[in-house]
């Protein structure tokens, strides 16, 4: 539906690649100075290994086809889907930067958030299986808004990934989505992990910030995921909030997105 696509001008003011000294009152508390070609360098460095990984997955598929094993066929298909997704993310970042000057620019189209939640859950299935965490998503039926499918998937993937990383071993992650007053949608991602301290809550959405919870499941994170979720939410005119669960342990992250302009 190419004709339906709209570009929303990024809200953050900086020219692409522009650097400036941090100013007192910068809400992120870090310098925004960066190398103007940083994204191109990162993309270049990721593209090579990714292309090789793609060939490797193809080779496993070909080998498996000689004497097919159902489990291997399923795992290969999942690995293939993840490689496709990574290549899509990379190209999307570069295209958004080249065309709109912002890797997270909103290229708005009709988006079914329920479907994106299902994809975020499916994408994190390997980590959930490794940690024996059950991830459940309400069957809400379609929840349409105007938004950017690629960056919204990125935001949901970050939230589900964090929840799965920090849920109690053998625990549960619940994703809920509901319509809110203004016709937008609220997505709640709830886990049963250690939750967040008061200090954590104040700092959670700043870049390069790792908080009290440390996951046993993965290499140390970069502390960028929640900041990226915040930028994506804000670019959509929405917001992200974190809170501890009242009834039991763990945290809930709530992503609120407006219906968007059609
Ligand atoms: N669901 C959660 N429960 C408890 N703490 C969390 C949760 N999600 C995030 N955190 C804390 O917030 C910190 C920042 O999360 P964020 O997603 O920004 O970075 P990260 O997961 O460490 O790395 P990455 O950049 O790879 O996402 C984490 O290091 C963790 O301490
Ligand atoms: Mg993260």
UniProtKB/TrEMBL annotation:
Catalysed transformations (reactions): ATP + protein L-histidine = ADP + protein N-phospho-L-histidine
The protein's enzyme class: transferase
Lineage: Bacteria, Pseudomonadati, Pseudomonadota, Alphaproteobacteria, Rhodobacterales
MF term (GO), any: phosphorelay sensor kinase activity
GO cellular component: plasma membrane
PANTHER family, per the entry: SENSOR HISTIDINE KINASE TRCS (PTHR45436:SF5), SENSOR HISTIDINE KINASE YKOH (PTHR45436)
Organism in which the protein naturally occurs: Halovulum marinum
Top-level taxonomic group: Bacteria
Record field: compositional bias (Basic residues): 12-22
Protein name: histidine kinase
Subcellular location: Membrane
Keywords: Kinase, Membrane, Phosphoprotein, Transferase, Transmembrane, Transmembrane helix
Positions of the UniProt region annotated as Disordered: 1-33
Keyword Transmembrane helix: yes
Alphabetized InterPro entries for the sequence: HATPase_C_sf, HATPase_dom, His_kinase_dom, HisK_dim/P_dom, HisK_dim/P_sf, Sig_transdc_His_kin-like_C, TCS_sensor_his_kinase
Pfam families, per the entry: HATPase_c
Enzyme Commission number(s) from the entry: 2.7.13.3
Domain Histidine kinase residues, every copy: 41-261
